[in-house]
């Protein structure tokens, strides 16, 4: 993607987060990682295009209704739950296991969609259900994708659910660092005894993790070797869904 366009998208997202409040140029530069001069040039381009306006009182910048209208249209086109099913279905067909699509909410993940395994013995979960992020694959995948800030979202003392739950934050950080490097995270019966899985994060067009896609099932079937074998399928499905959500930093 053109660097100028990426800068513009980053600035628009920053202003959208303010929900109509004006933001001074130093804040825009700091939140987008641009230099002050780059932020200024990008803002001037967006003003000329009608997406940004200057506040006459404090000199700050805010998005116009044109920008918010664009955001509403794009959100409708890139709704995650509408975009994900084909990728989830393909992954289910390849692996034969339960497929979860999860988002991070504080120290938990919420299952926003799923496909049940056709196997007689399978992982139990429900759409809308929660799970501790530090103890499930989709949660660890999302924590790993935003490692610099993720540990701050977790409680000071990590709760133990099974003998395999990682409760030491330094040990968890080491595993998340590894997960960030290889692109996927693994659950080895850390929330529920005998249930494991592997998951990879989903990114949007702003290169931000928005969800995680993973598989889960009984550890008798999903052994360490089997999880490693299935991980490339999860990575491929997550990459495809990320691309469909506008993420271009692939390969």
Please, could you describe this protein's structure?
This protein has helices at 3-17, 25-32, 36-49, 65-77, 80-83, 85-95, 137-145, 147-150, 169-182, 224-244, and strands at 52-54, 61-63, 98-105, 108-115, 130-132, 185-188, 195-203, 209-218. The longest helix is centred in the C-terminal third of the chain and has 21 residues, at 224-244. It folds into two domains: 3-77, Winged helix-like DNA-binding domain superfamily/Winged helix DNA-binding domain (Arc Repressor Mutant, subunit A, Orthogonal Bundle); 80-244, GAF domain (Beta-Lactamase). The chain is elongated, with a radius of gyration of 20 Å. 45% of the residues lie in helices and 19% in strands. The strands form two sheets. Strands 5-4-3-8-7-6 form a six-stranded antiparallel beta sheet, with helices on both faces. A two-stranded antiparallel ribbon has the order 1-2. It is of the alpha+beta class.
């Amino acid at each position: 993607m053109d660097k100028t366009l990426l800068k513009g998208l980053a600035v628009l997202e920053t202003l959208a987060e303010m929900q109509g409040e004006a933001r001074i140029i130093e804040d825009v530069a700091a939140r987008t990682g641009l230099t002050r001069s780059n932020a200024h040039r990008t803002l001037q381009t967006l003003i000329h295009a009608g997406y940004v306006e200057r506040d006459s009182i404090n000199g700050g910048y805010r998005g116009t209704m044109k920008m918010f209208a664009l955001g509403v249209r794009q959100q409708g086109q890139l709704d995650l739950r509408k975009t994900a099913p084909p990728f989830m279905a393909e992954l289910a067909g390849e692996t034969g296991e339960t497929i979860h699509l999860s988002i991070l909410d504080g120290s938990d993940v919420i299952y926003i969609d799923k496909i049940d395994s056709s196997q007689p013995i399978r992982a139990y979960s429900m759409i809308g259900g929660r799970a501790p992020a530090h103890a499930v694959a989709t949660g660890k995948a999302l924590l790993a994708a935003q490692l610099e800030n993720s540990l701050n979202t977790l409680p000071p003392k990590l709760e133990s659910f099974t003998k395999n739950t990682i409760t030491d934050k330094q040990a968890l950080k080491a595993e998340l660092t590894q997960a960030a490097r290889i692109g996927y995270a693994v659950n080895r019966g850390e929330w529920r005894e005998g249930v494991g899985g592997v998951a990879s994060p989903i990114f949007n067009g702003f290169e931000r993790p928005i969800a995680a896609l993973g598989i889960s099932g009984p550890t008798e079937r999903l052994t360490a070797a089997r999880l490693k074998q299935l991980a490339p399928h999860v990575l491929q499905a997550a990459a495809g869904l990320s691309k469909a959500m506008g993420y271009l930093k692939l390969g």
